[in-house]
Amino acid sequence: MLKKIETLHRESGNTYGSPRVHVSLKRHGVAVSEKRVARLMRENGLRARSSNLYQAHPANHAFFRAIPNRSLGVMIDGPNQVWVGDITYLKVGRQWRYLATVMDKYSRQIIGWCLGRTKGVRLTLLALNRAVAGRRPKGAVIFHSDRGIEYAAHAFRDRLKGLGYIQSMNRPCKMTDNAHMESFFHSFKSDAYHGLSFSSEQQLRRQIARYIAFYNEERLHSSLGYQSPKAFELGVAA
């Protein structure tokens, strides 16, 4: 539920408060009370930006119309064909941290990540650059994300263009278009985050690194024939 709320909040440019998020959830068939939405948003630091601080620009609307979900229907038969990215919120003491990750959709392997104090374009760029440095793909990669401003920013779009990558984004209000990343965040929070407290960013960073290593190298995925992402890729390479 929280992930759906975060996605709707981000895709609104952080302008939606709990009433609008609640209505959007209902339109997507999600049964939840506005009171619960408000509580989850309050507990997770999700607040609506003042409307006079966020103005819609025709150029932004044109950009979103021009960037469809280009990953739909793509037959993925190897690594480095479609990458997916997303951001989630994590708590250190009473402060928020933001985790941006990049996943290879073929094997579900996490190939780049970055933890930061702010969730701007610098965070998503660092995660992308680490994925590029680690994988060095030879062909054009489709990079898919939600419609958050961290991925729609000029700096991020220009970086993808410079790499020769193809940008892809969720269809409007289609949170399931990025289901692979949502599934990873759900697994991480269930397995290694909920029920724990972190007193420092370093402590949280170590936990993330440990879990990603476990997820990539050991965690069995039914969709991969009960292999880990790395084992699945090695099997293909062999």
Write the layout of secondary structure elements.
Elements: H1 2-11, H2 18-27, H3 34-43, H4 58-66, E1 82-92, E2 95-104, E3 109-116, H5 121-135, E4 142-145, H6 149-152, H7 154-163, E5 166-169, H8 179-192, H9 201-217, H10 229-237
Parallel strand pairs: 1-4, 4-5
Antiparallel strand pairs: 1-2, 2-3
Q: What is the average of the pLDDT values?
A: 87
The value of Rg in angstroms is: 18 Å
Shape: globular
Estimate the strand proportion: 15-25%
If you consult CATH, what is the topology of the largest domain? Nucleotidyltransferase, domain 5
What is the percent of helical residues? Answer: 40-55%
Spell the H/E element sequence.
Answer: HHHHEEEHEHHEHHH
Biggest sheet, open or closed, and with what strands and sense? 5 strands, mixed
Distance between the termini: 40 Å
Q: What count of domains describes the coordinates?
A: 2
Low-pLDDT parts are 50-60
* CATH superfamily caption of the largest domain: Ribonuclease H-like superfamily/Ribonuclease H
Instruction: Determine the number of helices (DSSP H or I, runs of at least 4 residues).
Output: 10
Find the structural class using helix and strand composition.
Answer: alpha/beta
The appropriate CATH architecture of the largest domain is 2-Layer Sandwich
Oligomer: single chain
Q: Going across the biggest sheet, name each strand in turn.
A: 3-2-1-4-5
Strand segment count: 5
Which CATH top level class of the largest domain fits?
Alpha Beta
How do you describe this structure in short?
The chain is built from 10 helices and 5 strands. The protein is α/β, with parallel strands linked by helices and 238 residues long.
